[in-house]
Amino acid sequence: MLLFKDTSMVFTFFFLVSLFFIVKVDATYESHSDKSPYIFDFTIKRKKVLYNNDNEKIILSINNSNDTYGPTIKVKPNDEVRIRVTNLICNEQELAKGANGKSKIWQDYCQASLHFHGLINIGNKVDGVPNLTQKPIENGESYWYNFTIPEDTCGTFWYHSHSSVQYGDGVRGLIIVNCVEYDTLKNNIINHLEIFGTSTLQSKSLLFADKNVLSSTTFIPKKFDDVTKEHNILLSDWYHERTIDILEKDVLVDDGTNDPRFESSLINGVVENNVQMKILESNTKYLILRLLNSGTSGTQVFHIPNKKLIIFETDGTLLNPYVTDTLTMAVGQRYSVLIKIEDEDKNEGFPIVKGINGCNKMMGYVTKTFWFTPIENESTITQNVETYIQENQSNNIRISKLPNFNNDELYKEYDNAKDGEIWKSNNDHSLKRIELFYDNYKAENTYKVNDKTFEEYLESPIIIDNSNNTILEIILNSKDHMRHPWHLHGFNFQIVSMGKGTLYKSAIVNHRTDIDSVKQYFQDLKYWETSRKSPLIRDSINIKGHSFVVLRVNLTNLTKKQLGKWLLHCHVEWHVSKGLGAVFQITNTSTATPNNGSNNKPISIDTMTTKIKVLTIYCILICLINYYIYIKFI
Ligand SMILES: [Cu+2]
Questions:
Q1: How far apart are CA 561 and CA 579, in angstroms?
Q2: What is the ipTM of this complex?
Q3: Which region is the signal sequence (predicted)?
Q4: What are the residue ranges of CATH 2.60.40.420 in the chain?
Q5: Distance (Å) from CA 99 to ligand 1 centroid
Q6: 180-401 has which CATH code?
Q7: Of 131, 196, 249, 557, which has fewest CB within 10 angstroms of its CB?
């Protein structure tokens, strides 16, 4: 059978086939259902954007985006992910500033990296910490982050640069790991509200007394899909100047002891007030919101007037749904929240819902109003919405006066959806305690943890030999007066205890319950033993000034991917620049040596271009051979 009418068609066919292979190398896929890897191609480049109508700012844009966020990555457990990051951050003048060791600030800023915040068990070499788990990605170079989403991963995560203070200017985005358990929990909440309504919801209480209900699927979940909308809300502080300029001018200078003040806040990348999220339809009954505090410094507050927020996931941990009015989020934290849209939210047949956002700025808050509005763009509806917003704007919002406002970590109120218990050891040998003390050394303009800066820990980490299959207990003491948001890489932790004052390891060992902090610690341990709850598992936490927190990390049955050097650091970019962080090196002398990332070397663009050229020549040769075979033998 003749498939091609003439030889030129044969050539064209094979040439197109070869082109397909060339194109696939660089293609970016956001979602698919087959087993092939998810490939993302991120080019980070400086870009001038306008905000507040005509103000200019240079941001770091991923793939030419007009705001400081890259695309949302949506994956499932067991998916393979490949992300290529290409660094085109600095122009020649900026590169010259950092060249030959002239300015370390600019040298660091012109390099690139990508960290996957909260994704654990994906491997140390893809943790994205320059000069610790990988070589920095230099200007003009590309680097592949290849990993598999672990089986038990579920919920909301994010990616961000770990180089200098870059992610404040861009290089950040959301990662959603979809999974059956999340959907089951969500649908069970909706089912509960369908039966009992919202009038019975009690603030500061758990929705279900019995956790078994979380796994029940006695109804048809899909019937609510049409009336449920899901939306992501990315919150951040906002500086009119670039973070690198602030770092150079105001932070890493002799008199730079105070934090720079941010001017405003961002809701989904927008600086202006009264942001509209056009997502509602006339029949929308439920709103699922994934919230992320992706800021560089400020704690975020989220509130919907006259509505209950039903919180059912945080930091990739599913929760027995917790009912509240106002949610507070430390930098780095994520939350999934469900709210119900009622008939009284409707205006001219379409729902409009108002939201309040506060971003903590020194003693006060930058406050914003935002709106969930109809997706319809008919001019009459748009006009109605505009009028409604003008008539219902909020003035003089006092964030601290919002109902059930609380900026403490709710470490006992939240409850893991899954049954569990406190991670503990059968004997003292396998419970390893580490005490850390951090403070601001104003005379030196540095922060230190146990008298060492973050830079010093890069050279000499805290070694944890895990040949005993340890439960690690980190006692983190703030000697500073400020609140700091801490994040642990590579592992999540249980929040075992928190309180005022200082907690010493020796005082625990000696059972000094006459000291308040020790008394609090043992009271909390007793609470976990006697209550039906287990400590909340998460990866980011706000720690108040002059207080302590006890975090347990489960180092039993480690895989090779968990060995290596991992950061524990404050997520305020200005503070980590001044030294507020430490490095743990998890080793296991009885198994493999840690991976220092040296086998994941950056690939230069030239190398990649050469590969594509070779592939092109190969494909053309194949075409020619086929063409020759065709005219000679067929
Ligand atoms: Cu801090």
A1: 27
A2: 0.80
A3: 1-27
A4: 31-177, 180-401, 428-587
A5: 29
A6: 2.60.40.420
A7: 557
